Amino acid sequence: MVPAPLRVWCVLAGLMASTSASSATSTLVKHSLANIPSGWAELQDAHLSPSRGLNLRFGLSQHGFSELESLLRDISDPVHPNYGKHLSKDQVHALSKPSSTTIKLVGDWLGAYNATSVKWSASQDSVTAVIPVSSAEIMLSTRFGIFEHVKSGKHVVRALSYSLPEDLISHIDFVHPTTAFFDPLRHGLGHFASGEDIATLSSHLQKRPVALNQSEFVSCVNITDPPCIRRLYNIGSYTADAAVVGNNHIGVAGYLNIWAKPDSFKLYLDDYIPESIGSSYTLNIVNITGPFATNTVSDEGNLDTQLAVQVAYPIPVTYYTTNAVPPYIPDQNQDGEQPGVNEPYLDFVEYLLGLDNPPTVITTSYGDDEQTVPKDYANAVCQGFAKLGARGVSVIFSSGDQGLGTGNLPSCIANTGNNATTFLPNFPASCPYVTTVGETQGFFPQETLSASGAGFSYYFERPWYQDAAVSHYLAGSANPNETPLQSSMYNHRGRAYPDIVCIGGGPFFDYYYNRWDIGGGTSASAPTVASMVALLNNWRLQHGKPTMGFLNPFLYGAGLKGLVDMTEGYVNGCEQEGFNATEGWDPVSGLGYFDFKKLQSLAL
Ligand SMILES: *[C@@H]1O[C@H](CO)[C@@H](O)[C@H](O)[C@H]1NC(C)=O
Ligand SMILES: *[C@@H]1O[C@H](CO)[C@@H](O)[C@H](O)[C@H]1NC(C)=O
Ligand SMILES: *[C@@H]1O[C@H](CO)[C@@H](O)[C@H](O)[C@H]1NC(C)=O
Ligand SMILES: *[C@@H]1O[C@H](CO)[C@@H](O)[C@H](O)[C@H]1NC(C)=O
Ligand SMILES: *[C@@H]1O[C@H](CO)[C@@H](O)[C@H](O)[C@H]1NC(C)=O
Ligand SMILES: *[C@@H]1O[C@H](CO)[C@@H](O)[C@H](O)[C@H]1NC(C)=O
Question: Which of 111, 256, 322, 370 is the most exposed place for a label (fewest CB within 10 A)?
Answer without folding.
Answer: 111
